[in-house]
Write a structure and sequence with these properties.
single chain; alpha+beta; 5-stranded antiparallel beta sheet; 2 helices; 5 strands; 30% strand
Length: 93
C-alpha cells in the first residue's frame, strides 16, 4: 500500500492517473496518510497546488532537499524556481 510515510517534501513524482497523467511534479506538502499537495510551477502553481492521492503517483527516489530547506526557513520561492528545479526531469523522464 502506498502511504505518505514513503514520501517526503521535495520529492519528484509523476502522475499516473487523471488529466495530468505523465506530468512531473514536486511534493509541496503532505496532507494525511493518503494525500499530498503537488506543484509543477506551470499548470499547478504554488498558490493553487493539486491535492492528489499517493496511489495515483509514481514516486521517484529523487528528493530535492533545497525545496524543503527553503520552505522550512520560510525563504521565498516562486513558480519559476519550481519550473527550474523540474526542468532536467521533464527532459529525462
Amino acid at each position: 500500500m502506498d502511504l505518505t510515510s514513503d514520501v517526503t517534501i521535495g520529492q519528484v513524482v509523476k502522475s499516473r492517473a487523471g488529466r495530468d497523467k505523465g506530468k512531473i511534479f514536486l511534493i509541496l506538502d503532505i496532507i494525511d496518510s493518503e494525500h499530498v499537495f503537488i506543484v509543477d510551477g506551470d499548470l499547478r502553481k504554488l498558490d493553487n497546488p493539486k491535492k492528489k492521492k499517493i496511489k495515483h503517483l509514481i514516486v521517484y527516489n529523487t528528493v530535492l532537499p533545497e525545496l524543503k530547506y527553503k520552505l522550512d526557513n520560510k525563504m521565498k520561492i516562486n513558480n519559476a524556481y519550481i519550473r527550474k528545479l523540474l526542468e532536467p526531469f521533464n527532459k529525462s523522464f
